[in-house]
Structures
1.
Amino acid sequence: MTTEHKPSIPFTYKLIIGIVLFIGVFVAALVLGAADTTLKDIWLALMTNETGDTLSMLREIRIPREVGAIFVGAALAVAGAIMQGVTRNPLADPGLLGLTAGANVALAVTIAFVPAADYFSIMVACFIGAGVGTVMVLGLGALKKGGFSPFRIVLAGAAVSAFLTAIAEGIGLYFKISKNVSMWTAGGLVGTNWGQLKVVVPFIIIGLLIALFLSKQLTILSLSEEVAVGLGQKTTQIKAILFIVIIILAGTAVALIGNMAFIGLMVPHIVRAIVGTDYRYIIPMSVIVGGGFMLLADTLGRTISAPYETPVAAIVSILGLPFFLFIVRKGGKAFT
């Protein structure tokens, strides 16, 4: 039986603090970079119709890029939180459990066989690929008697991810589209534009709203399936909806920036240390922390060796791998 102490600070105050910090990181992300900008430039770019090289750069390059970072970070963080709750596996993450690798294969297939595909078609393909990757991992994880276990799921995720990554690379080599595929799958926000965001953002918002709506059911499900059934939950339907939400969130993230592991692993653990184990609090805080974390990682990528870019995926992995090993060492309970 799990007992949860009441938080010393009300959740509302924690949320306000999180939003204030998030806004600060967003402003810093817009100011810092290879091109010099000021707070005045940001104000003019956001609030006026004035023109100029700096303002055009902000409106057409930096602002859409950072808006993309916010939504991708939020999507991956919430997808990871849902996966950890549904599977009761503290090591669950879309990038570690085959979702993003499946979406990458679908993306490679689409580029190879439908070179004229528009952005919406590519995103739909990523949804399908993420779904296939999920089914493969869960199928492998459930093959052995005894059902799911965190260790078995991680092994299945690693095997499926390696297999699907090899397929994506093979397709790229065979059809001579390796450069195009790698540009998508490298894991970065370079080239993000308003047209892409208009396609991707509505799906992410829908996924986040459904996650918020089902957060109470997810909390009960994360504690015990027997309790959920005893309270009258339709666990199969709820799980199915939540897995669809995970696929939507992971698929859109891959369609926008490519492969990005560890965000869905790290952020939910950090958030649980702040707000506890109630998913009514975890989901909204994951949106803020995930978006802020991705903003920070992208800003570091743009500024560490400016004017050259350090891949965001590399920065996230450098932070994520030690975190993953730490969680494994602590048995998944380092922050709970």
Note: The radius of gyration is 20 Å.
2.
Amino acid sequence: MTKENQRSIPFAYKIAAGLLIFVGMFIASMVFGAANTTVKDVWLALTSNVKNDATLMLREIRIPREVGAIFVGAALAVSGAIMQGLTRNPLADPGLLGLTAGANAALAITIAFIPSINYFGVMIACFIGAAVGTLLVFGIGAIKKGGFSPLRIVLAGAAVSAFLYAVADGVKIYFKISKNVSMWTSGGLIGTSWSQLQIIVPFIIIGILVSLLLSKQLTILSLSEEVAVGLGQKIARIKMVLFIVIILLAGASVALIGNMAFIGLMIPHVVRAMVGTDYRLIIPMSAISGAAFMLFADTIGRTIHSPYETPVVAIVATIGLPFFLIIVRKGGKAFS
């Protein structure tokens, strides 16, 4: 099938296919794992008050974990899509441009100095850290004329990320809190609870809804700022709101699962190959695809070496690093 034929398929069919894949991955993530469950157990856990070993395990452990995977996958994919559109940089990703490293450093500092802080406070700290990481990267990129080139921004992101990870490691060693911080930043969904989701999920939903509302403006910005100004767009205000959305989505994700790179890079590239360059289509498709991919990665992590667990960050990195190298080699147009 040619690219022209692919893009002539109505978007409704593509989004329906994406939803079917997402539902299939959710069912698979519920059924497969160290504990044996069936589709019937999943149905009872979701629709009834039946209490047995299988339904209790699903309700208290597996369902909140996979709900967390859904929202984190959607948040990272959407934030990556927004970053790529705003910067017109095909290599933009929250994990590669300092956001997750900043959130990670802020989390370590917060646990060191305020050990009794609650989960909401940890999340606010992650938001602040993500904002600081972003400002450092773009500040370095703005020092020199032409600094916002894709390569320079990625190099700045790598340098800032290395610095912020070093800060986090130094704090962990000095204050002897490595174990406590590692429980947050190991890049996994173990221990995700309903109480955590009640705090995190509203922020992610708000971020995605705002990005959908501004998707038309983002499409124009992704083509040319001059065109956006000519069409009367208030680009400074739009950029500021979208950067806040990115910080919300990336910060919430780090607060829930820790460090996770490449999802925000991979998913938007694949989605653009399917739906084109209109962010009114890219953002909802990225959210669905990111959620489905995160469910897939977590299910593989739980089952590939059952009953032991492979960190989901390792699964994502195994897929994401070759993808990143292909995009770099092709100049960012491998899947666009």
Note: The chain has 15 helices and no strands.
